[in-house]
């Protein structure tokens, strides 16, 4: 019989993360486009990001029919958080920035994220932004496929910290870190050291 789950954070009730999830305001509107294969992941960091930010939403699917209306949200300038040759490194909002960003964040493996772009050509047309100096991932349970790869929630926090400084969004990472600690203790210290330790 499946364990009862929290409706909000989707974690087993005994490990509900809701008390750790903040409710933060941001000028930037964050829209997370999640590939359906990510929804069942134990570390569903896009959901945690959407729950912790008041000005954020999580959409799940492969083809997003409402994209034209979403990108036309009044009062925002839409950009895609995705690396590429034309991607501009995010920098702090200046006094001349009339419109805050509508930050579109694909959530999935690199292959799935590229598929989302392919299936939604409007995304391909958006100006791209990327992180300059990427802080190392705190996600110690998965070896990143390339240097500079971080989880979705870490990428969102780093972008918001850059855009909206001196505001700080690190509080958003509290449930994420608790999730990782919980998985490490469930795994056992020896297994963790053997599989994920620095060797």
TrEMBL record:
EC number(s) stated in the UniProt entry for this protein: 2.5.1.25
DTW domain: residues covered: 2-188
Enzyme class: transferase
UniProt KW keywords: S-adenosyl-L-methionine, Transferase, tRNA processing
Domain of life: Bacteria
Signal peptide positions (record): none
Similarity section: Belongs to the TDD superfamily. DTWD2 family.
Name of the protein in question: tRNA-uridine aminocarboxypropyltransferase
Organism: Pseudomonas machongensis
């Amino acid at each position: 019989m499946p364990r009862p789950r929290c409706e909000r954070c989707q974690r087993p009730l005994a490990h509900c993360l809701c008390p750790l999830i903040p409710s933060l305001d941001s000028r930037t509107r964050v829209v997370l486009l999640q590939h359906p294969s990510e929804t069942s992941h134990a570390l569903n960091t896009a959901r945690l990001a959407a729950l912790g930010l008041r000005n954020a939403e999580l959409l799940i699917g492969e083809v997003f029919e409402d994209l034209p209306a979403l990108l036309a949200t009044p009062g925002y300038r839409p950009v895609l958080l995705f690396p590429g040759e034309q991607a501009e490194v995010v920098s702090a909002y200046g006094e001349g920035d009339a419109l805050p960003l509508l930050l579109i964040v694909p959530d999935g493996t690199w292959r799935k994220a590229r598929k989302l772009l392919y299936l939604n050509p409007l995304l391909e047309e958006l100006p791209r932004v990327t992180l300059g100096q990427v802080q190392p991932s705190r996600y110690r349970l998965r070896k990143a496929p390339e240097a500079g790869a971080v989880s979705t929630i870490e990428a969102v926090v780093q972008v918001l910290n850059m855009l909206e400084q001196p505001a700080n969004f690190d509080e958003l990472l509290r449930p994420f870190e608790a999730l990782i600690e919980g998985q490490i203790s469930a795994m056992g210290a020896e297994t963790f050291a053997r599989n994920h330790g620095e060797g």
